[in-house]
Automatic annotation (TrEMBL):
InterPro entries: AAA+_ATPase, ABC_transp_ATP-bind, ABC_transporter-like_ATP-bd, ABC_transporter-like_CS, Oligopep_ABC_C, P-loop_NTPase. It comes from Phytohabitans maris. Keywords: ATP-binding, Nucleotide-binding, Transport. It holds the Pfam family oligo_HPY. Belongs to the ABC transporter superfamily. GO terms for molecular function: ATP binding. The keyword ATP-binding applies. The lineage of its organism: Bacteria, Bacillati, Actinomycetota, Actinomycetes, Micromonosporales. Gene3D superfamilies: P-loop containing nucleotide triphosphate hydrolases (3.40.50.300). PANTHER family: D,D-DIPEPTIDE TRANSPORT ATP-BINDING PROTEIN DDPF-RELATED, TRANSPORT ATP-BINDING PROTEIN. This is ABC transporter ATP-binding protein. Residues 3-242 form the ABC transporter domain.
């Protein structure tokens, strides 16, 4: 497996953000991680890249157990570029004083690669993510939201990572740009990249993911093939998500059924 998370616990003070979370992503596979705001999705992602320290469990990236990594070892791993994180807000994740090209090539320059070779690679990736080469000389503030998102994806891919974490990568995009972005993410599977696609939108994830993991109040309550999750979900929270997605909801999933599921969720100890 390119990524394995096993029995992960994370605490923020007295708050138990993750409880025994486990998932895996194989090379060339896309796994969707679904849950509402505050369910622990970004916490899990940040634990994978060393931005959050777990209190229990294990994280393995490309066969390398990184659970106990601290400071220098994490910095060395990040320089190698085995795992890359595409943050939800592309504007805040890009240096406003660097041009698009400078942002994209920065990971290679940190590795000590020649600037000319890095620039050539940046142009290749710009074309791959459908970013006009003329935009490479611009600053992030001069780009649209969709263009900035493509810059962050190009920057993540330039090190040829084994694992890419996409945190709400299409939430800020218009409908047409969202469709193009999802098609591009599908193409990444052919390169053998393992994708962890994080979203609150089951409709977007269902069309791209091979498997889906459902996170509810810090616990992964259901995992399975995307088709099974959409058509035969077992956990009431998953069924509520499916029923709330207009493009996925069947005629039988009416308001009365959703209210019944909310009531059931309350009985098992969580807010509806």
């Amino acid at each position: 497996m390119s990524l394995e998370v096993s029995n992960l616990d994370v605490h923020y003070g007295r708050t138990h953000a993750l409880r025994g979370a486990s998932l895996s992503v194989a090379a060339g596979e896309t796994v969707g991680l679904i849950g509402e705001t505050g369910s622990g999705k970004s916490t899990l992602a940040r634990a994978v890249v060393g931005l959050v320290r777990p209190s229990a469990g294990r994280v393995t990236v490309a066969g390398e157990d990184v659970t106990g990594y601290r400071g220098r070892r994490w910095r060395a791993l990040r320089r190698r570029g085995l795992v890359q994180y595409v943050f939800q807000d592309p504007l805040r994740s890009l240096d406003p004083d660097l041009t698009v090209e400078e942002s994209i090539v920065e990971p290679l320059l940190i590795q000590g690669r020649p600037r000319r070779a890095a620039a050539e690679r940046a142009r290749e990736l710009a074309a791959r993510v459908h970013l006009d080469e003329a935009l490479l000389s611009r600053l992030p503030g001069e780009l649209s939201g969709g263009q900035r998102q493509r810059v962050t994806v190009a920057r993540a891919l330039i090190t040829e990572p084994r694992v890419v974490i996409l945190d709400e990568p299409v939430s800020a995009l218009d409908a047409a740009t969202r469709v193009r972005a999802l098609e591009f993410f599908k193409q990444l599977r052919a390169s053998g990249t393992a994708l962890l696609f994080i979203s609150h939108d089951l409709g977007s994830v269902a069309g791209i993911a091979d498997r889906i993991a459902v996170l509810y109040q810090g616990e992964i309550v259901e995992t399975g093939p995307a088709r099974t999750i959409v058509n035969a979900a077992e956990h009431p929270y998953t069924r509520l998500l499916v029923g709330s997605a207009p493009t996925l909801r069947s005629a039988a999933a009416d308001r009365a059924e959703r209210e019944e599921l909310r009531a059931l969720l309350q009985t098992i100890g969580g807010p509806a």
